[in-house]
């Protein structure tokens, strides 16, 4: 019953916030580390229930269950941090950018490297992967690059009308992709060979798994909101550079953990297409669903929202997307393909630590 415990902890944290703040610094640090550890534990339990549901409904619906659940977590945490204390207008940008980089460089790199090491040359459905990459590219450029070239507002910002229009386009594009993935072009997103990954997880009542999944997600959201806000406050107090980038990367890493594990697990079981569906689908869902939600909150509350990336981040984004197109263009991948993606990911991490 870890999800239930997570829900109670998530509810108790805001109530005991003042008491935690008065603890000596070493004890407060230990308390924060314990909470983070419990968040990660809960994430793995939630993953178990999400995959149990996924194996009940089959692919690609199972992947959609997981990506939708994780996107709900990310959107909630972004909104919470954005509204916490001093308004943070860049947290949405940093979280979305971090998600795309972690997925297209880190998760894909690990999946191709580890899976390729075990299975050598691996094949995937070019039609499905190309569709995923096309959606990610369109959404990424519209949300993270285009704001730097508009004339109505300051650099990196959309006007309210532009923000509503772009958010609507993102949502419509993602809905169109989901319809294509689940109906007309479903075969393009299925592995040629069915694997045996997680067959034991399909046991148990699907209703119970669904209820515990929902409870666990709420608990993760509440705990992640507290941890992210605490991290932001601590970084600002220490006068650390790149506070927004670090918090955004932390949020993205935290919420992508279930999908990272699921994608790597699928790749290790020679289910490359399922691995790509999970990893790339999470990036699509983050931009297609989380950005419209954050934009709506920004419009209603009046909080500023800066989405445009700086020059260095723009180069990294376009490099990661360009390499992804080349990597999956032939329909086959190798260990070397994964190494290339991981090199880009290391460069991304380096520029967060040493801008």
UniProtKB/TrEMBL annotation:
GO terms for cellular component: plasma membrane. Signal peptide: none annotated. Keywords: Membrane, Transmembrane, Transmembrane helix. It is a multi-pass membrane protein. It is found in: Membrane. Residues 30-182, 209-352 form the Sodium/calcium exchanger membrane region domain. The keyword Transmembrane helix applies. One of its GO terms (molecular function) is potassium:proton antiporter activity. The chain crosses the membrane at residues 30-49, 61-83, 95-117, 129-149, 161-180, 210-231, 243-264, 276-300, 306-328, 335-354. InterPro entries: Alkaline_pH_Ca-Antiporter, NaCa_Exmemb, NCX_ion-bd_dom_sf. This is Ionic transporter. It comes from Devosia sediminis.
């Amino acid at each position: 019953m870890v999800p239930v415990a997570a829900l109670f902890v998530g509810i108790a944290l805001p109530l005991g916030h003042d008491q935690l703040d008065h603890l000596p610094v070493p004890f407060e640090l230990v308390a924060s580390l314990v909470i983070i550890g419990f968040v990660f534990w809960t994430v793995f339990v939630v993953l178990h229930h999400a995959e149990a549901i996924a194996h009940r409904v089959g692919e690609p619906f199972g992947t959609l269950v997981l990506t939708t659940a994780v996107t709900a977590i990310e959107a909630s945490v972004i909104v919470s941090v954005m509204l916490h204390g001093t308004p943070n207008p860049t947290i949405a940008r940093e979280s979305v950018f971090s998600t795309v980089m972690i997925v297209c460089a880190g998760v894909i790199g690990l999946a191709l490297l580890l899976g390729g090491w075990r299975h050598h040359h691996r094949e995937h459905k070019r039609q499905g992967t190309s569709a995923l990459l096309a959606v990610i590219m369109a959404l990424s450029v519209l949300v993270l690059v285009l704001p730097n070239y508009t004339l109505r507002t300051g650099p990196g910002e959309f006007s309210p009308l532009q923000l509503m229009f772009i958010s609507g386009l993102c949502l419509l594009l993602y809905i169109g992709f989901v319809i294509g993935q689940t109906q007309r072009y479903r075969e393009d997103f299925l592995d040629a060979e069915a694997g045996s990954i997680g067959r034991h997880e399909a046991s148990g009542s699907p209703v119970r798994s669904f209820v515990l999944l929902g409870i666990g997600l709420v608990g993760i959201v509440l705990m992640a909101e507290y941890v992210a806000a605490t991290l932001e406050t601590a970084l600002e107090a220490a006068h650390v550079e790149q506070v927004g980038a670090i918090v955004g990367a932390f949020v993205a890493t935290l919420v992508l953990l279930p999908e990272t594990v699921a994608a790597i697990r699928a790749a290790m079981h020679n289910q490359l297409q399922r691995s790509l569906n999970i990893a790339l689908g999470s990036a699509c869902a983050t931009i297609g669903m989380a950005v419209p939600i954050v934009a709506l909150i920004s419009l209603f509350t009046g909080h500023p929202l800066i989405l445009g990336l700086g020059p260095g981040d723009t180069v990294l984004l376009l490099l990661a997307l360009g390499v992804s197109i080349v990597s999956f263009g032939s329909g086959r991948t190798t260990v070397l393909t994964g190494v290339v993606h991981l090199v880009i990911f290391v460069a991304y991490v380096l520029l967060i630590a040493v801008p």
